[in-house]
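pasting for the record
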Amino acid sequence: MTRIAAVCFVAATAAFFASAEEAEDRWYFSAGAGLNLTATLDQNGYSYDDVAYPDLDYSHLPGGQPDGFRWHYVVETESGQAFQAAVGRMFKNGGRLELRYDRRNAALEHGEKKSTYLYGDEIKGRETEIVGTPKWGIGDLLTDTLSLNAYYGVPVADEKITPYLGFGVGLSRATATDVYFESQYAGTAEPGGPAPETFNNLQDVDVAGVVSTQILSAGVDYRLTNETLVGLKYAYAVVDDIEQEDLYQIHPKPGFTSVTRFSGMNHWSIGIEVKYLLGE
């Protein structure tokens, strides 16, 4: 996908630069805001946790011992805000080249959850005097993107109206905040056995990464004055997955870690932009 995106971007920029050699151009600044919509995410994680928790049954596992855990959450999203600022160069033949910063956010909520032992075996419980109570949660998805974009205006009869198409490539820092898991154990320990609280778990982290991003966009600008344009823009961003290894704040084994991966962070945005053109 990244290679195809790069080829498309080079072809698009070369096309309008070739036709802009004899055209006058103008620098511009733009800013805008709008609505951000993110598709349903997948949160996957795993650990090599081999602690024999008292409320789980390991009799069906090879050797009767745990080999670790694997989990998957469907993460639902709510609509959020999108903000942008850019500087670019506009060519009178309809081409534009733009360096752009976007900030998007979306609230997250865990949906369906599935857990297994590390290699897919079913997790089974057993009756015991010590029982764990798991809790989990998640905060927001924040995406900061810096991209280089090429646009081409579509000629129409009304000179004040300029529809356009665009394509861009860049880098995003995507952050899933407050990724939380806790399990507290309570009950009566067996004689000579460990206290229930020795099995407690707690992990509360932000999962973040810098990943490649490709952007498709379409919009229309209306020229209010010779220096000012206002427009409506729709954009779709393809954001690669992030993965991170983190320590547990509390775990039966000090210094223990797990790995978390988020995928499906592609998002749509629609908003209003204002462009201010500098002198000719």
